[in-house]
Amino acid sequence: MTTETNNSAVEFTPERLTKAKEIIARYPEGRQKSALLPLLHLLQEQEGWTSPEGMDYVARMLDIQPIEVYEVATFYTMYHLDPVGKHVIEYCRTGPCCLMGGEEVYAHLKNRLGIDAGQTTVDGRFTLKEVECLAACGMGPVFQIREKYYMHLTNDRVDEIIDELSK
Amino acid sequence: MGIKILTEHIDVPGIETFDVYRKQGGYTAVEKALKTMTPDAIVEEVKKAGVRGRGGAGFPMGMKWSFLAKPEGVPRYLVCNADESEPGTFKDHYLMKMIPHLLIEGMIISSFALGANKSFIYVRGELMYVIHILEKAIAEATAKGFLGKNILGSGYDLELVVQPGGGAYICGEETALLESLEGKRGNPRNKPPFPAVKGLYQCPTVVNNVESIATTAWIVNNGGDAYAAIGIGRSTGTKLISASGHINKPGVYEIELGVPVEDFIYADEWCGGIRPGHKFKALVAGGSSVPILPANLALTLANGEKRLMSYESLSDGGFATGTMLGSGGFIVFDETSCIVRNTWNFCRFYHHESCGQCSPCREGTGWMEKVLHRIEYGHGHQQDIDLLVDVAKKIEGNTICPLGDAAAWPVASAIRHFRDEFQWHIDNPSEATQPGAVYRGEMALV
């Protein structure tokens, strides 16, 4: 039984639908639930966040209960469960980055944006999230925006990046 | 410079493409394996090589392979653990990004040896750009007949699937990884049954780290004995070390196991020494979970001999005076580092990443984080140090998976070796909470 509430709003674009079907076909017969994490990434890539409607859509696509999607989406930190700004800055707060001045640069970034972790700027351009180790410790301090890693951060470099993304 | 097994060609321009990789001798091991060797013969070479799991546990890979159950008519799986998330560790990230075909080649050889026809590479979701690199490499290898049906006319079929994670350190634990790969929360499973008997989809499964799998190409080409001749004692071969912290040249280095820790830190070909004007205070040698050591114990064993970069030498002395090679996440601290703050930081990490299944870990990591936080921020109680030791002791060994141990060890070892620094925070809260304040009492800086 799948819920049929308020979920017609979200649908994959034709290209993403093709991609979704390719992903589902990678797993053995009857193991299509393995596609859940990849499909949630695909959903978030399209919608910007992992909305309840989107999760219900993925549940129907995989023929699983919506709760099976919710329990997964809430376990993993990459899925944004609330709407986010245009650019989500995921800032590494873990030890090795801190040794390289990560805390000072982070303070500067927060000042510059005028927001704290978990918040979005009033213009909706930036959301700031704190994340744990991004496996780039030798290049710290590090943050990530979507797929791109920004490394060896300094206050000046942060200003440059924010200026660039504010254009 | 020492022998390079994994990174010899890593700086060749275009090495990420099939053609350049092939020109450097790539995929000859697949040809040799599929055309001239039986799966059992490959397993035998890997056993002889003595290569130990490079993800952190150090379990012999050949032995792990030989445990794989082989019931008739049941598929077997090989899953590559590319969920690299242990703070201080970034070697797999580097290897996959720079030379993806080395992992693909290793996956083909290993899958053939284990009799798997569908294998997975589970990559942490944050590395989506690396996933694209691997997928491109797989498409190239497939187009050239090294993947897919009837590879090189051998009759062997293999499909490789790259699976993204969703952001959860715990999925680096092999059974949590399998749960995640089945589309579930990453809760580790009780063992037994071990994955070798019931793993992915309840079928026999081997889970190996990226670096471990990548060694198989060289082992097939050169033989297990040749691999075992490299390194020292039971620490055979080479190891990728991710070096970070207060050193002149952070980065990923492939070393022959057995190099003295001192050389690794100070020699120009590796870390290039502590940053100018500073002194060496402490070392985390194998990722955030292994015990932290003060500089003198990092460089020398309790008996005064040089400590080496090997499984045995790093753990010499047990946890009293030793540590572990772990994942090779080598984090160097100079005298400006506050051990209390770093311990709190690591503990926050483990609290954040605990899956919540076992109470000792779920609750204990949270309590340790809170107590460490109050010590660091000037509100520590006199009994807090003993309280931390007690909580750490009650987590260790009492959880389904090793995350509990991984959280307990950094706390217990920091107190073991830097107790005075914790005490100073508790006794001098106003001084200790000044910006940039660091304990400068008696300790051996190098």
UniProtKB/TrEMBL annotation, chain A:
Keywords: 2Fe-2S, Iron, Iron-sulfur, Metal-binding, Oxidoreductase. Gene3D superfamilies: Glutaredoxin, NADH-quinone oxidoreductase subunit E. Coiled coil: none annotated. Its EC number is 1.6.5.11. GO terms for molecular function: 2 iron, 2 sulfur cluster binding; metal ion binding; NADH dehydrogenase activity. Transmembrane segments: none annotated. Its cofactor is [2Fe-2S] cluster. Binds 1 [2Fe-2S] cluster. [2Fe-2S] cluster binds at C92, C97, C133, C137. The keyword Metal-binding applies. It comes from the Bacteria. Pfam families: 2Fe-2S_thioredx. SUPFAM superfamilies: Thioredoxin-like. Belongs to the complex I 24 kDa subunit family. This is NADH-quinone oxidoreductase subunit NuoE.
From TrEMBL, chain B:
It comes from the Bacteria. Its EC number is 7.1.1.-. The keyword Translocase applies. Its cofactor is [4Fe-4S] cluster; FMN. The keyword Translocase applies. Residues 340-385 form the NADH-ubiquinone oxidoreductase 51kDa subunit iron-sulphur binding domain. It holds the Pfam family NADH_4Fe-4S. One of its GO terms (biological process) is cellular respiration. It catalyses: a quinone + NADH + 5 H(+)(in) = a quinol + NAD(+) + 4 H(+)(out). It is an enzyme of class 7 (translocase). Keywords: 4Fe-4S, Flavoprotein, FMN, Iron, Iron-sulfur, Metal-binding, NAD, Oxidoreductase, Quinone, Translocase. GO terms for molecular function: 4 iron, 4 sulfur cluster binding; FMN binding; metal ion binding; NAD binding; NADH dehydrogenase (ubiquinone) activity; NADH dehydrogenase activity; quinone binding. Belongs to the complex I 51 kDa subunit family. NDH-1 shuttles electrons from NADH, via FMN and iron-sulfur (Fe-S) centers, to quinones in the respiratory chain. This is NADH-quinone oxidoreductase subunit F. It comes from Spirosoma profusum.
